[in-house]
Design brief:
With 226 residues, this protein is of the alpha+beta class. It has a domain at 114-225: Immunoglobulin-like (Sandwich). The chain has helices spanning 2-17, 46-108, 148-155; strands spanning 114-122, 128-136, 140-145, 159-166, 170-181, 187-198, 203-212, 217-225. The strands form 2 sheets. The protein has a 4-stranded mixed β-sheet. A hairpin with a 4-residue loop joins strand 7 and strand 8. It starts with a helix and ends with a strand.
């Protein structure tokens, strides 16, 4: 038995030492004249797949970066546009409110019956105004108490609309009483009267407070604007 195994062991050892040698089916080395043909190299299909996947990943990353940039820019642009829109709406509301007030006055006080009374002050160093009472045809139409800021506004040339109402055509009388502090910080009350005719046009009347440097006392006059 050992005599049969010995040649096989020798053949296997020789095959390990000479891997390039071809062997026959019965374990004998093939003829050296029959070379073993090399196997043709086959291109691996994995490389193109990996390349395409890498390109798609790069493209996806680029698109993701663009989307992120767009998302980063959009929130900053939206608030500015919203603020501009809000300011425009505020302006529209203010203009609409002004137009509604004008329309309301025209409806409530038509031109053919409208009368408006204004209070103004020229210099006013000799009189510190506290309040004004106005009577129209023996009827009190306004009692107004002034704040220091309102008096300062009148000193700077402001004009206050003290009364706006309706008056039928014909003759009418206005009596105005001014109360405040006169020269030497004394309590001062003075009244003035004017008669006027109301036609079909609106009537504007100015109650003016002015200083008389010659008399060193305030003067109160009424001017009817035509």
């Amino acid at each position: 038995m050992f005599a049969n195994i010995a040649p096989l062991v020798a053949s296997a050892a020789f095959a390990l030492l000479a891997p390039g040698t071809a062997w026959s089916a019965d374990g004998q080395p093939a003829s050296p004249s029959a070379p073993v043909s090399p196997q043709p190299a086959v291109a691996s299909p994995v490389a193109p797949t990996l390349g395409a996947a890498t390109s798609e990943a790069a493209a996806g990353a680029s698109l993701g970066a663009k989307d992120s940039a767009t998302a980063a820019v959009a929130p900053t642009a939206a608030p500015a546009s919203l603020d501009n829109r809000i300011q425009e709406l505020k302006g529209d509301v203010i203009r609409l409110n002004r137009d509604l007030l004008v329309l309301e006055e025209e409806l409530l006080f038509p031109a053919n019956t409208q009368v408006a009374l204004f209070v103004s002050m020229d210099v006013g160093k000799l009189f510190d105004l506290d309040s004004v009472q106005i009577k129209l045809d023996d009827k009190v139409v306004t009692n107004y108490l002034y704040t220091p800021l309102e008096v300062q506004a009148l000193h700077r040339g402001g004009v206050q609309r003290a009364y706006l109402g309706n008056l039928k055509a014909g003759s009418h009388e206005i009596v105005a009483f001014f109360t405040g502090k006169g020269p030497h910080d004394r309590d001062y009350k003075r009244g003035t009267t004017v008669k006027f005719d109301k036609g079909t046009d609106p009537k504007y009347i100015e109650l003016r407070i002015k200083d008389s440097t010659g008399k060193l006392q305030p003067e109160f006059e009424v001017k009817v604007w035509q």
